[in-house]
């Protein structure tokens, strides 16, 4: 049974009631239960992990157009826009050392450079009235997106995030006392592999054709058989090839001293269901899309990323990538991030 804890104090807030709540699923109290206290040290580190494979061009453009909605939610906080770092990272880490078409480099966890009037910066920074970019933050973000869409088709957003948030890779981005918000944007599920994994090898004898079915087969467990809809799909916690999502949940928690109120995890992905495995023209199994749009195209079920966001309860947010209008998606995520910065959930 999960242990319910009495929250006596929160950073920037004082409790006015004695209601018990489950800290794992409800790390933040209702704003109706706290007295808001302005703080001069409201910090937010916002990391976007964006799929840069060939199918993502339109969705990246929609993301850039909708970013203004997220910023609006933060500007509407009682004290206005917090002290912000905004970084962008791609899902491309290469193919585990194998020579695979489209997977020859990888970002090694380095943030995407932003071009400014005075040169390049690793991330956008805004503190008070001072910024390292010209114009608004939304304008600066739009100048960087869309990214090139020639990245590896074996997306590894969770492993890329881990590298990017390692102090030696991007030493100035992550701050100890800041709320950390991570937003994943991808039309396929995570396929973060262990070092030394052979899952991406070009040889097809062991793992079959070089398709995302390899990642699904090793990274997800379901009930049912190829040729129809599968049920009870969950991230594989014992895979020898794909790293369990619990490793990444614990990584994020460690960064914030296991204080879930300092984290927001969002995923703009395909719905985790339905999961349907069809049979291709060669008689081999293939993972079918769980959604599609006329302009954005199809997207495959994101069982792993959806489960990771859900594991953070109220500070997790999963939105469908199968929409041609990202405005409501980013409004929702902006509201989740604003709650994290404020220290309570507004109703």
Characterization of this structure:
This protein is an alpha+beta fold and 347 residues long. The protein has one domain: 3-Layer(aba) Sandwich (Rossmann fold). The protein has 7 helices and 20 strands. It has helices at 57-75, 137-144, 157-164, 213-219, 245-255, 303-310, 327-342, and strands at residues 4-6, 9-10, 13-15, 20-22, 34-36, 43-50, 83-90, 114-116, 119-121, 124-127, 130-131, 179-185, 220-223, 228-235, 263-269, 275-279, 285-287, 291-293, 297-299, 316-320. A 7-stranded mixed β-sheet has the order 11-10-7-6-12-15-20, with helices on both faces. Strand 2 (9-10) and strand 3 (13-15) form a beta hairpin. The chain is globular. The two termini are 27 Å apart. Residues 1-21 have low confidence and may be disordered.
Q: What distance separates the N and C termini?
A: 27 Å
In round numbers, the mean pLDDT is 89
What is the count of β-strands?
20
Helicity range? 10-25%
**Helix vs. strand class:** alpha+beta
Topology:
Layout: E1 4-6, E2 9-10, E3 13-15, E4 20-22, E5 34-36, E6 43-50, H1 57-75, E7 83-90, E8 114-116, E9 119-121, E10 124-127, E11 130-131, H2 137-144, H3 157-164, E12 179-185, H4 213-219, E13 220-223, E14 228-235, H5 245-255, E15 263-269, E16 275-279, E17 285-287, E18 291-293, E19 297-299, H6 303-310, E20 316-320, H7 327-342
Parallel strand pairs: 6-7, 6-12, 12-15, 15-20
Antiparallel strand pairs: 1-4, 2-3, 3-5, 7-10, 8-9, 10-11, 13-14, 14-16, 16-17, 18-19
Helix pairs in contact: 1-2, 1-7, 5-6
């Amino acid at each position: 049974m999960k242990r319910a804890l009495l929250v006596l104090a929160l950073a920037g807030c004082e409790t006015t009631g004695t209601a018990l709540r489950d800290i794992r699923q409800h790390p933040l109290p209702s704003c109706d239960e706290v007295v808001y206290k302005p703080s001069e040290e409201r910090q937010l580190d916002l990391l976007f992990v964006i799929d840069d494979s060939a199918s993502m061009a339109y969705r990246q453009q929609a993301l850039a157009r909708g970013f203004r909605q997220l910023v609006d939610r933060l500007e509407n906080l009682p004290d206005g826009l917090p002290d912000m770092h905004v970084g962008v990272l791609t899902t491309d880490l290469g193919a585990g050392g194998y020579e695979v078409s489209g997977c020859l480099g990888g970002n090694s966890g380095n943030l995407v450079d932003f071009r400014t009037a005075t040169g390049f910066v690793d991330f956008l920074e805004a503190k008070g009235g001072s910024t390292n970019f010209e114009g608004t933050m939304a304008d600066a973000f739009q100048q960087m997106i869309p990214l090139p869409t020639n990245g590896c088709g074996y997306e590894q957003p969770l492993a890329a995030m881990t590298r990017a948030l390692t102090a030696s890779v991007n030493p100035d981005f992550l701050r100890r006392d800041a709320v950390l918000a991570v937003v994943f944007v991808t039309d396929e599920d995570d396929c973060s592999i262990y070092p030394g994994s052979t899952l991406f090898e070009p040889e097809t004898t062991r793992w079959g054709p070089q398709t995302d079915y390899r990642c699904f087969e090793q990274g997800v467990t379901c009930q049912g058989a190829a040729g129809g809809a599968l049920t009870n799909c969950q991230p594989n916690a014992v895979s020898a090839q794909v790293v369990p999502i619990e490793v990444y949940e614990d990584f994020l928690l460690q960064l914030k001293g296991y204080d879930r109120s300092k984290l927001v995890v969002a995923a703009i992905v395909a719905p985790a269901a339905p999961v349907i495995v069809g049979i291709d023209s060669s008689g081999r199994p293939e993972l079918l899309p769980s959604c599609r749009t006329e302009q954005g195209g199809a997207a495959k079920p994101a069982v792993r990323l959806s489960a990771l966001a859900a594991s953070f309860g109220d500070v997790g947010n999963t939105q469908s990538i199968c929409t041609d209008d990202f405005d409501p998606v980013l409004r929702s995520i902006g509201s989740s991030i604003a709650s994290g910065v404020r220290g309570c959930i507004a109703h």
